[in-house]
Design goal:
- This protein has 18 helices and 27 strands.
- It is α/β, with parallel strands linked by helices.
- The protein is globular, with a radius of gyration of 25 Å.
- The site of fructose -6-phosphate has 15 residues, from α9 and α16.
Length: about 600
């Protein structure tokens, strides 16, 4: 997804901006550019392609300026060409704008601007902003930006510089994240803290409706009511190591391998062993509020939605509440029923997914209480939710979500433990047992990760497959869905996840020797049924790979390959079963020569609907 970096200070801006853009590359993009202000001159450089290409171009022909803005673009309006890359400028080439989000009334604005004599040269919605600011009245850049934004419908996180106002960056936010980085005699702006962490850990998160004005001397924020505000400065809790490869060939492998630590981190300080409960102060749920819950609705997308499906089993079992799991993008356009006692749980790694954010807003408008299970601290979903659980899994850079998934399941188990005990539907002994099982998970994840060489061997065998089927039942069905999603998004092999027993109602027609079938079959109360499903596949010549529980010898002769994960509580088995499937997808994709950290067409954080 698009990324923004900006700098104003005493240093040359270009190297800092390029470094920042490089740190945002993981979000996915197709073109890049920057604008620098030097004296009263504005210089814009951009291209279709990688930030490295932009850096080479700037090395060849230096670009000077101590104030600048830069952007990586993930095309929405118009093809990924140099012309459409940001920054965009006005007719007089005095103003440059970088923008994340979508200007919904861009067509109408473009027509009006062209009618009044403006010459627009790109296919983008963003270019209209530069021309609107050019036309806007005001005695300062910020006044003109504010006046221009009055005409705009849609979402934006944007940064503007002008040759008429050197040293100044004006930043605006509505629906697309931007934060300020506070340095010593220098200021930064970024859509993601990772872009500026090398230079400062002190950040100010902007709210929707904010306008921020940055100069080397300092900054101020003007809120949506036109009040000048002083905002709290937050400290970014993680450091650069977390966003470096640290010897791994890919972020995805690093993040898979980190999961013992990330699961531990999600649990840290939250288990109350004696009370058999969980401490989740951030939820802001009083015992009365817990008692008043009648139903839970989980809204999420992609991998987070799969975690939500696991969460349904966990919450129905532990909290004894009916749970619906909704695709956020579908939920928000359905009729919202104002049912009293509805708790909506928005699950999102990034905390910025537009569909999830809008679903959560729709639920709130219908009177539901909304909590967030979010990884990125200070993200929009975390800030708009009435309470929540941070995953504390650290930054996830690989586009394919891995460590966030396992931490989401752990956070859902904590939520189940908390609600179950608060609502008095989970016994002390059962709560204590689950708390112990949760505490054992990090060690069990470490043991599971030792399967990697075995998984690698299997990956070699199936690297040429064109289709895969993933099957599981009960709590393992979402794991099958997640295994299939991981494989398809990074290796481009077609893969489908299905409930194992549903296979005989159609997909069984696909089974032959060319269709590897991955069964997620831990030893639980549906295990024998799943073994029967395996027999059905075997009888039709299908090739079976199974994930099951250690010590389970039964699958010999049925499955060609068996990955055995340690035993745990059945509700927690997805945390372990997911690991070999992540590794399988990773190794197949690497063997096929795919760019696993930056799969084609995908972005890390999907901030468009
Ligand atoms: C898949 C993946 C996506 C995300 C989805 C939601 O590997 O990463 O499916 O899970 O885009 O993103 P978040 O969790 O940030 O809301």
């Amino acid at each position: 997804m698009c990324g923004i970096v900006g700098y104003t200070g005493q240093r040359q801006a270009a190297p800092l901006l390029l470094e920042g853009l490089q740190r945002l590359e993981y979000r996915g993009y197709d073109s890049a550019g920057l604008a620098l202000v030097e004296g009263d001159r504005l210089e814009v450089r951009k291209l279709a392609g990688r930030v490295a290409g932009l850096a080479t171009a700037i090395r060849r022909q230096a670009a000077a300026g101590t104030t600048g803005i830069a952007h990586t673009r993930w095309a929405t309006h118009g093809a990924p060409t140099e012309r459409n890359a940001h920054p965009h400028v006005d007719c007089g080439r005095q103003i440059a704008v970088v923008h994340n989000g979508i200007i919904e009334n861009a067509e109408a604005l473009r027509a009006a601007l062209e009618q009044s004599g403006h010459h627009l040269t790109t296919d983008t919605d963003t270019e209209t902003l530069a021309h609107l600011i050019e036309d806007a009245a005001g005695d300062s850049l910020e006044a003109r930006v504010i006046a221009a934004l009055d005409h705009v419908e849609g979402t934006y996180g944007l940064a503007v510089v002008s040759a008429d106002d050197p040293g100044k960056i004006v930043v605006a936010r509505r629906g697309s994240p931007v934060l300020l980085g506070i340095g010593d005699g220098e200021l930064f702006v970024a859509s993601d803290a990772s872009a500026i962490l090398e230079y400062t850990r002190s950040v100010v998160y902007l709210d929707d409706g904010d306008i921020a004005v940055l100069t080397p001397a300092g900054y101020h924020v003007i809120d949506s009511q036109s009040h000048v505000q002083v905002r709290a400065v937050d400290d970014v809790a993680w450091d650069l190591e977390a966003i470096a490869l640290g010897g791994y060939p890919h972020f995805m492998l690093k993040e898979i391998s980190e999961q013992a630590e990330t699961v531990r981190s999600t649990l840290r300080g939250r288990l109350l062993f004696e009370q058999g409960a969980a401490r989740l102060n951030g939820l802001n749920l009083t015992p009365e509020a817990c008692a008043a819950i009648r139903r839970i609705v989980i809204v999420a997308c992609g991998t987070s939605w799969h975690a939500g499906l696991v969460g349904r089993h966990i919450l129905e079992t532990l909290a004894r509440l009916p749970v619906e799991v909704e695709y956020a993008s579908e939920y928000r356009y359905r009729t919202q029923l104002s049912l009293p006692g509805t708790l909506v749980v928005a699950i999102s790694q990034s905390g910025e997914t537009a569909d999830t954010l809008e679903a959560m807003r729709a639920a709130r408008a219908a009177g539901a209480r909304v909590i967030g299970l979010v990884n990125v601290v200070g993200s929009t979903i975390a800030r708009e939710a009435e309470g929540g659980i941070y995953l504390h899994a650290g930054p996830e850079i690989g586009v394919a979500s891995t460590k966030a998934f396992t931490s989401q399941i752990v956070a859902l188990a904590l939520l189940g433990l908390f609600l179950g005990r608060q609502r008095d539907v989970l016994s002390l002994e059962a709560g204590q047992e689950l708390a112990c099982r949760l505490a054992q998970l990090p060690a069990l994840v470490t043991q599971t990760l030792a399967l990697e060489p075995e998984v690698q061997r299997v990956a070699r065998e199936f690297v040429g497959a064109r289709n895969f089927l993933y099957l599981g039942r009960g709590v393992s069905f979402p794991v099958a869905l997640e295994g299939a999603l991981k494989l398809k998004e990074i290796s481009y092999i077609h893969a489908e996840g299905y409930p194992a027993a549903e296979m005989k109602h159609g997909p069984i027609a696909l089974i032959d020797a060319d269709m590897p079938v991955v069964f997620v079959a831990p030893r639980d109360d549906v295990y024998q049924k799943v073994v029967s499903n395996m027999q059905e596949v075997k009888a039709r010549g299908g090739r079976i790979v199974a994930v099951t529980t250690e010590g389970n010898g039964e699958l010999r002769g049925l499955a060609e390959h068996v990955f055995r994960v340690p035993a745990t509580a059945p509700l927690l088995s997805p945390v372990l079963a997911a690991v070999p499937l992540q590794l399988l997808a990773y190794h197949i994709a690497v063997l096929r020569g795919c760019d696993v950290d930056r799969p084609r067409n995908l972005a890390k954080s999907v901030t468009v609907e």
